[in-house]
Every structure is written in structure tokens, then in C-alpha cells.
């Protein structure tokens, strides 16, 4: 692990382990703000930008102890590491934006590609970043948005030659999990675990809707609870609130499985399931809106035209 000389200005140096430096996060969605809050709780200076976003986003940044730098250029220019946490469909665009900022500012932060994407997508990000002189750490968040006081920290897989520098950061609520295998290994692990977890949630939503249609919902839930005690209507509804983002993640899983010589059809179908769930009543809500005692799956039913 490299160390900056005492008293040196390490902003934008690409060395997150060197002294008191900033960590940038792109972009300020729910996961990004949660991660930023944990970084701030660990004593790190955290930079994001609320430019082009709502006043509510700016307030959430302030509440989380995150500095609004005002622009992506300001984030990239001041940070030793920039973590990309965006919806999967925006991973390539975010890499393009960060690379463009690096060219404009002359900064060379370490890019942490932490999106739910296939290893092939990470390879594209690596090429984009390399064209701007940036090195990349492959990262993948496995679990819920982290909280500094969480009993069980959220796991973040890390891979690549410079992964130990990120793993050295003290971040309450996060457990870094270093992987061998080089760039792409962390994202491959995420695609495998997400296929089981989110595939299961899609199956649950369809099972509950089908059970309701046939008048056997209580029987189905009681039987499922023997093996899956956490399977219930609120769990399916919470998944539906994130369905719009899961669509692209299912496509990335399909690509990952195709790259392993398997059919992509299974998760192409899962993408269709989530695309339809996104049109349901719960698809337009937030996870925190789901009542703990929700008993009817009716709000999971997609619009008749599925759009």
C-alpha cells in the first residue's frame, strides 16, 4: 500500500490510503448516500454533488455529513478515490462522466466501480477509465444500504491490484471482502448472489399473486414459512418498489450467465417479471412505504398492458 509523503497535498492523487484525503461518491441515490454516511462516520471527508437534483437530495447529503461539492468535476478533482454507485443501466455513462472529469481536471483518483453489473461491463468501464489514466477497483455491494450502527455490516466485495487500499478505509457499517481473481471477480460474485436473492423475490411475487387468484394465499404463505420464514407479502412489495432498478440488474445477470456458457433466458425472463412489477402500485412507491403487516398482494399486480 502506497503512502504519501508527510505534508504532501494528496487531493486527487489516486491514493485513498494516503493521509487525510477525500472520498467521492457518484451519484447521490439511496445506496450512495448510505455509503457516504458510513464513510463520514469513519472520519473521512465525503464529497458528492446534488447538481441537477432536488432540494431534498441536498438536504439528505447535509444530514448524512456529506459535502456537496457542486459538480462532478469538483468531486473528481478533490477525491483520492471515487466510488460509482448508480443504477446498473447508468454504469457506463457514469464511467464516461468520471473519465471526462479526470481529463478536464487533471486529477487521477482511484475509480471504485461498485455497480451491480456483469464482469463484461466492468471490462468496458476499465477501458474507459484507462483512457483517462485512471486505475479501477472492482467492487460490489452485497446486502442492504449500510448503516454505521448496523448489527450486521453490509458486505462489499473488492477485487483488483489496488483493492487493499480501499479495504484499509475504516467505514462503520461496511465489511470489506477481498477476492482473488482480479478485476471482474467482485462483480461476478455479486451477479451470482443477486441471481438467487432477487430471483427468489421475483418468484415470491408471482407465487403470491397466483395464490391470491386461486384463493389459497393463506395456505401458500403458511407452507412457505416452514422453509422460508421471511417470505411474506411485505417482502414481495419491498422488492417491487425497487423493480425499476432490478430490471437492468437482471439483464446484467443474464449476460454474466451467458458468459459462463449458460442460457441467458432464465434471467431475461426475470427482467420481464421486474419490468411488469415496476408498473404495479407498489412499483411506484418506496420501500419505507410498505406496511409491516401488509396482507394483500393485490398491489403487486402489474397493469394489464405491463407498461
Plain-language structure description:
It is a single chain. The protein is globular, with a radius of gyration of 20 Å. The chain has helices at 30-41, 55-63, 72-78, 91-105, 119-131, 163-167, 185-213, 217-227, 233-241, 243-259, 265-277, and strands at 22-26, 45-48, 67-68, 79-84, 110-113, 136-142, 154-159, 174-178. α4 runs parallel beside α5 (119-131), α7 packs across α10 (243-259) and α7 (185-213) packs across α11 (265-277). It folds into two domains: 22-183, NAD(P)-binding Rossmann-like Domain (Rossmann fold), CATH 3.40.50.720; 191-300, N-(1-d-carboxylethyl)-l-norvaline Dehydrogenase, domain 2 (Orthogonal Bundle). The model is unreliable at 1-11 (pLDDT under 50). It has an eight-stranded mixed sheet, with helices on both faces. It is 46% helix and 13% strand.
Task: Label this structure with key terms.
globular; 46% helix; Rossmann fold; alpha/beta; eight-stranded mixed β-sheet
Outline of this structure?
The chain is 46% helix and 13% strand. The chain is of the alpha/beta class.
Helix content: 40-55%
CATH topology call of the largest domain: Rossmann fold
In CATH, the architecture of the largest domain is: 3-Layer(aba) Sandwich
What gap, in angstroms, lies between the N and C termini? 50 Å
- Residue windows where pLDDT falls under 50 for at least 5 positions: 1-11
Domain count, please report it.
2
What structural category do the secondary elements indicate? alpha/beta
| Beta-strand content bin | 5-15%
Q: Shape from CA axes?
A: globular
- How many H/I helices? 11
CATH class of the largest domain: Alpha Beta
Tell me the radius of gyration: 20 Å
Strand numbers in spatial order across the main sheet:
3-2-1-4-5-6-7-8
Overall number of strands:
8
Averaged pLDDT: 93
CATH superfamily of the largest domain: NAD(P)-binding Rossmann-like Domain
